[in-house]
Amino acid sequence: MKRLIFHIDVNSAFLSWSAVKRLQEDPSCLDLRTVPSAVGGDIRTRHGVITAKSIPASRMGVRTGEPVVKALQKCPGLILVPSDFITYREFSRRFIKILEEYSEVLEQVSIDEAYLDMTGRCADPLAAAEEIRTRIRTQLGFTVNVGISENKLLAKMASDFEKPDKTHTLYPEEVPAKMWPLPIRSLYGCGPRSAERLSQLGITTIGAAAAADPRFLQDVLGDKAGTYIHNSANGISTSPVRAEEEKAKSYSNEITLPEDITAANYEQMMPQILTRLSDKVAGRLAKDGVRSSTVSVIVKTGGFRRHTRQTMLPSATNDPRTIEKAARELMYRLAFSEDGLFAADETIRLVGIGCSGLDDGQFRQMGLEEWLRDIEKISQKTEKNKKLDAMLHDIERKYGKGALRKGDL
Fold first, then answer.
1. How many CA atoms lie less than 13 Å away from 71 in the CB half-sphere?
2. Residue 229 has pLDDT above 90, yes or no
């Protein structure tokens, strides 16, 4: 049986949810979705970036992620509203609750989009998609797009076709007609710089990438990215819809830099980047209650080549400074060694830190300093208990046994 995958995406989610809340509070107010409007930035100072925009604002050239000042230059009459994440989370919860009625195999990938594995669950996919869209529109007050295909990639691509409140199919046999004529930047997973690099080499459409030699794409973008672009352009994806989030096997954070790092600006730029990335990775490790015994650094060069280096730690940790120290040593060797990146006249356009070799601390071997700290904590706790026992004894001697008891008794 062929798989049947739906991708459901809320149209201009934050803007739509802000508009719906305003209309619920005052039905006579202006519907933000019908005029050039946007969410984001400091409304009073008009600083910050655009996080969501209406379709009329999109037609005026306003783009998500651009500075508010630039958006206002394009659209002087742009209406700005502040973010309201309490409202967004509530609308997201209601949105997902409706989707859960159609399939127990649901993968929520963000606050405003999800995949449903509908294999064997409906005889008429278009009718099922229409029912989902209608229920969300009438019950919740906002609209969604539904993309339908046999895999997640094509379902996602389909949901990004004409908006709002539409259903689109993109089955494998429809890829040449519906997807290949699109510009390469429209391919899901193809970042702006990769799209620019490919366009410079004459690969301006998804179809051109699909027809390109995979080895050529790997040479241009790196092995992993080149393979992904070629497979995706041909509509190939085997990723399943995961109903439950898989337990992480590793943690990593990466950042694409506004300007490339060279030997000349390394000391100025790299240390603060590694500090920031270490804090982020360590924070995620601590939040999930795990530690890492292996730290790695990842870079992508100006020539789109990916390089990694890793090292084992004496003991597993989620301490940001320990992770940062290891990352700094790895990165310096990768960049400045005799056969390093700068010796090969390379520049660095992306930096990442990864942590693997995870455990929850149950079998962790402590270092001497950590063991001494724990012994000190135990000693302090023991001394505290002795003082409490002495105080309890004095009270009972003065007021009688049972005069003071623990609160849970």
1. 31
2. yes
Helices 85-99 + 125-140 axis angle, to 10: 140
Active site residue 113: yes
Q: Which residue has the tokens 């998609």?
A: 129
pLDDT tens-place string over residues 75-98: 999 999 998 889 999 999 999 999
How many whole angstroms separate alpha carbon 213 and alpha carbon 208? 10
Contact 336, 291 (CB under 8 A): no
pTM reported for the whole predicted model: 0.66
CA-based nearest residue to 103, from 171, 4, 170: 4
Marked catalytic residue, from 25, 100, 113, 162: 113
Domains of the chain: 14-85 (3.40.1170.60), 179-233 (1.10.150.20), 251-359 (3.30.1490.100)
Look up residue 73 and give its two tokens.
């230059």
Residue 397 class from Cβ within 10 Å (0-12 exposed, 13-18 middle, 19+ buried)? exposed
**What pLDDT digit, counting tens, does each position of 337-386 carry?**
988 999 989 999 999 999 999 886 554 555 555 555 555 555 565 666 66
Sign, CA dihedral 59-60-61-63, equals negative
DSSP string, 117-172: E-TTT-S-HHHHHHHHHHHHHHHHS--EEEEEESSHHHHHHHHTSS-SS-EEE--G
- Report the C-alpha gap between 243 and 81 in whole angstroms: 34
Cβ pair 296, 308 in contact under 8 A: yes
